[in-house]
Amino acid sequence: MTNHELRLDCEEFLHHEAELLDDKRLHDWFELLTEDIEYLVPRRVTRERGSERSEFSGKGFLYRDDHGTLSTRVERFDNDYAWAENPPSRTRRFVSNVRASELSNNEADDVAVKSNLLLYRSQGDTADHDLIVGEREDRLRRVDGEFKLAKRTVYLDQTVLATRNLSFFL
Amino acid sequence: MATGTIQEDVPDRVQSIIDDVGKVSETGEIPTRIHNDSEIFELERDRVFGESWVFIGHESEIPEAGDYAKRYIADNPVIFVRDENDEIRVLFDACRHRGTTVVRAEQGNTTHFRCPYHNWTYKNTGELVGVPHKEQCYQELDTCEYALQSPPQVDTYAGLVFACLSEDTPPLEEYLGDFRWYLDIAMNFAEGGLEVVGEPIRWEADTSWKIAADNFTGDAYHVPAAHKSTMDLDIFPSDLTALAGNRTSLDVIDCGGHSCSFSYFEESPGGYPEEIYSDDHLSELQYKIAKNHVSIVGTVFPNLSFNNTLKNADPDNRELTKFLTIRKWQPVAPDKTQIWNWILVPKNASEEFKEQAYDTGITTFSVSGNFEVDDFAVWDGITEAAGSSFTRRSNRQSNYQMNMDEMGDAEDISDEWDGPGTVINSAFEDGTMRTFYQSWYRTMTGQRIDGSDDNSEHRGA
């Protein structure tokens, strides 16, 4: 498979995933995850240029989830009392700048995919909206001829998040 | 850096609202307007945040000499730094020359702060040590007079560093007073103390800082409503909540102007490994509560809240786990608050447990926390309606009368209780919040929050 074909396959997966999330088909989205999924959103920290320490925290996280905690979140959104998403956020995910490469030394036949995410969110009886922007580094795994998401790290472009809560997935 | 006593005139409309808040312990009501009003907001920035002890950060965030973090006292930028002599300082972040901020990152480590504008340079103690071309053009400048300024009072309790912009406010020990008895249960129970994990998570919500601080004094009433989904899913199992029959639920409705709420069983419901506990700072009763509580939640007036609580991020696969969340509700605008969320864990616990506790914390009580996201969805509605013209013209009141007087069966058990403060034997009552607003009224009228100088001499009245 050429790298071009690989990228197209990965893009197709990411676009499909975004559609499921935007359409609130969270249980279908959950089916895209491997059982050993790692879902990470590290805290970004404003640091001086040249700082030896990474801008992205190794200890502070906005999400550090696995299959079980993600399952609990998905189930909770089915509940009428999950006010954070009742009424639901109107989200639109724009996924772009997709870069894919086969992982070397790759026993599990995984693919490394980077993409940019622009997530528009508006909610409630208002014209306001929030924008959540970042880069994602994913690990996609081929399972029975289909891609599954085995790991996602979202590198956000804000250190102080301008949205009242993260009641959705990135 | 003392602001001195503020004597500006207060418009009658605003003074009347403030005075109404002062009657909350009799009426059980406050004018809804205080939750979104620009004149009140301007005034409280000076009076509440200028005269109170405000939380800056935890010692464990800056463990090494030279470690610093940028923090805020309301709208005042400050540097939270451990200097080269290992002393923790809070410095007002403005160059003494033209006044730009000298710290431009959020955290880091440095021996010196150099102003980017004209390169005036300060040691991490605040001392001015570099003025470019001084011999040519600033010969008479006495650098000793131009150190970075420090708030007149800085002090520490159990690793928590506070600063106060006024020199007239009582020292921290007195300001926290007997309330430390309860703070000790929440954060002084572990051998070796607690430590912050990672960096505080920060985000902004369209609500008033007071609504969040009010909620954290102990609004058990909203839990079965706003957080019903978490009870349905056993993130917070129903048999642990105020609906459970066999737990002791107490509200400390006034303890020196601060308030909190806690509940505990006769046996431990789990949450921390047994070996982390230490009774060095605790009486027998405090130790029992520390081990057996479901949560102890409260607010140190004005904007520091804490909740040591038991939650489960994944009821099918994990265990109920305790963690301490500390909040700073930083006022940004009448209808905007920056939320700062620190998760603390016992320093001497295993790395495995620390991760488990941290993950439980951020998965339930943070910007993505499946318990707390529902609060943020409700609080901005209060601010929206509070800022409306109908609220203003009708002088609308918010209700804090739950279990007050003849409303219910809750009883004052302070006499038989072995801890300090005024204590009520119910979590379903609003006294904790009435005290928060009473402290707000007192600081807005130049009084001490504990009422010790209640001479009814109101400023600007």
From TrEMBL, chain A:
Record keywords, A-Z: Dioxygenase, Oxidoreductase
Keyword Oxidoreductase appears in the UniProt entry: yes
Signal peptide: none
Pfam families, alphabetized: Ring_hydroxyl_B
Coiled-coil positions: none
Keyword Oxidoreductase in annotation: yes
GO MF annotation list: dioxygenase activity
InterPro entries in alphabetical order: NTF2-like_dom_sf (IPR032710), Rng_hydr_dOase-bsu (IPR000391)
Alphabetized PANTHER family for the sequence: 3-PHENYLPROPIONATE_CINNAMIC ACID DIOXYGENASE SUBUNIT BETA, BLR3401 PROTEIN
NCBIfam families xref list: PRK10069.1
Protein name: Aromatic-ring-hydroxylating dioxygenase subunit beta
Lineage: Archaea, Methanobacteriati, Methanobacteriota, Stenosarchaea group, Halobacteria
UniProtKB/TrEMBL annotation, chain B:
Domain Rieske span(s) in chain numbering: 53-132
Signal as UniProt keyword: no
Pfam family, one: Rieske
Gene3D superfamilies listed in its UniProt record: Naphthalene 1,2-dioxygenase Alpha Subunit, Chain A, domain 1, Rieske [2Fe-2S] iron-sulphur domain
Keywords: 2Fe-2S, Dioxygenase, Iron, Iron-sulfur, Metal-binding, NAD, Oxidoreductase
Broad enzyme group: oxidoreductase
GO MF annotation, one: 2 iron, 2 sulfur cluster binding
Keyword Oxidoreductase: yes
EC number(s) stated in the UniProt entry for this protein: 1.14.13.-
Recorded superkingdom: Archaea
Family the entry assigns: Belongs to the bacterial ring-hydroxylating dioxygenase alpha subunit family.
Protein name: Aromatic ring-hydroxylating dioxygenase subunit alpha
Species this protein is from: Halorubrum glutamatedens
